[in-house]
């Protein structure tokens, strides 16, 4: 499961630096800390307690098949080893060195995605304001900058998320390598978001100015890569200079306040080096043996689970299967008073949050135009509103779960009703949107969220053993908020669509 989490980190652009973080961690531990083992029983006891915590998390990771939790348990286990390996190193130093690994752990329960969405929104707004000052003609639509003849989508790489994580890891490594005090380290880390935001704002503005003034496209290909490396190097240089400046100021002030500090530290280190390394006690050896056996048992269980189940994130579909799905999901020309304008199939990146495949029908109603779409594949429950938040929409209130009559499918729950998630959205241009969506397994059974009271907990529901699901959504965008009668009409359209589409994947389930 740790290997699966590493593969997951590798496909996230802002975390692809994680192998270098582990290498930097190993180099610092081996080269800069020659003294091993601990003379203190409290240090050994703390190490065993941390290892026991890692074991408990490993048990939970094995039970719910969570690679993320297994990776966290691995980092904690390495920290337990460090407490013994760096026996004469200060507790704060051990914590600082282990923090290099913690930078590679994505934020839990969906907050990593929320951070990306926030940075995308802030980056697009800041870039728009700078372009206004420079006189570059453009229109900002959510996270899209519409220039003359060119649209720039503020993706993760241009939102600052790539350089933010990498700069934090480099900053920690530099602080530890140069043995800067913790005050300098905390201050330097707190300013990393500033350097990252400024560098990525520079990249966005440079791309827009290059297109508008010099008719040069730096938004893709080798020029975009070179530009990204240049602004990252500039951000790192600024951060490095600040670390050196802050460290020099701290040393000048502290050495003046405590003139004999270096001599005192030298004598303490010499005294510690002269102390013998006692042998392990019986209870310590027994505790370590028990932990090794327990880790082995759950390691074997995890290996068995990986061999006996499908651990792929999502399945692949061949062209003939996609054609069958398209035929099965083609909605009629009319749904109530609405008329279908067009039908299209859309293929995205395999890891797109909207799903790799979508079969989209666009309908015209007397009051508005709306989209009915079936999106697939997903694993378990998929909180669709977050995808729209990434595009610049703002959720006006917590999504509501409502029941709509839908008498079809093999799973007749709630007296034939199906649970539908209802969301109201707004964007920066004042437009409103009405969103309805439901998720179903391939056999037609509905997949509902278990955390309706806290929408931040769906991440804990999405383990790699979750069943494959597909999503049916209705999205209606308008200049004004829909009135109650129009909302009820859209709900009826959605119920009709679910009735027709819910069993579209039965041939795959069978």
End-to-end separation in angstroms reads: 29 Å
The Cα radius of gyration reads 28 Å
Shape: globular
Contiguous uncertain segments of 5+ residues:
267-277, 409-415, 452-461
Mean pLDDT: 80
- Work out the strand percent: 15-25%
Class by SSE composition? alpha+beta
How many individual β-strands? 13
Q: Work out the helix count.
A: 17
Count of structural domains: 3
User: Main sheet?
Assistant: 10 strands, antiparallel
Order of helices and strands: HHHHHHEEEHHHHHHHEEEEHEEEEEHEHH
Helix content: 40-55%
Give the SSE layout.
Elements: H1 2-10, H2 18-32, H3 41-64, H4 67-85, H5 91-102, H6 111-134, E1 139-141, E2 144-147, E3 150-153, H7 156-159, H8 161-177, H9 182-213, H10 221-257, H11 261-273, H12 282-308, H13 319-328, E4 334-335, E5 338-347, E6 357-364, E7 369-379, H14 385-390, E8 394-395, E9 400-405, E10 417-426, E11 432-441, E12 446-447, H15 458-461, E13 468-478, H16 484-501, H17 506-509
Antiparallel strand pairs: 1-2, 2-3, 4-5, 5-6, 6-7, 7-13, 8-10, 9-10, 10-11, 11-12, 11-13
Helix pairs in contact: 1-4, 2-5, 2-8, 3-4, 3-12, 4-5, 5-8, 6-9, 8-9, 8-10, 9-10
List keywords for this structure.
alpha+beta, 16% strand, three-stranded antiparallel β-sheet, single chain, 54% helix, ten-stranded antiparallel β-sheet, 13 strands
What this model shows, in words?
Strands 4, 5, 6, 7, 8, 9, 10, 11, 12 and 13 form a 10-stranded antiparallel β-sheet that branches. Strands 1-2-3 form a 3-stranded antiparallel β-sheet, covered by helices on one side. It is an alpha+beta fold and 510 residues long. The chain has 3 domains: 2-106 and 279-308, no CATH class; 111-261, no CATH class; 319-509, no CATH class. It is globular and about 80 Å long. The two termini are 29 Å apart. Helix content is 54%, strand content 16%.
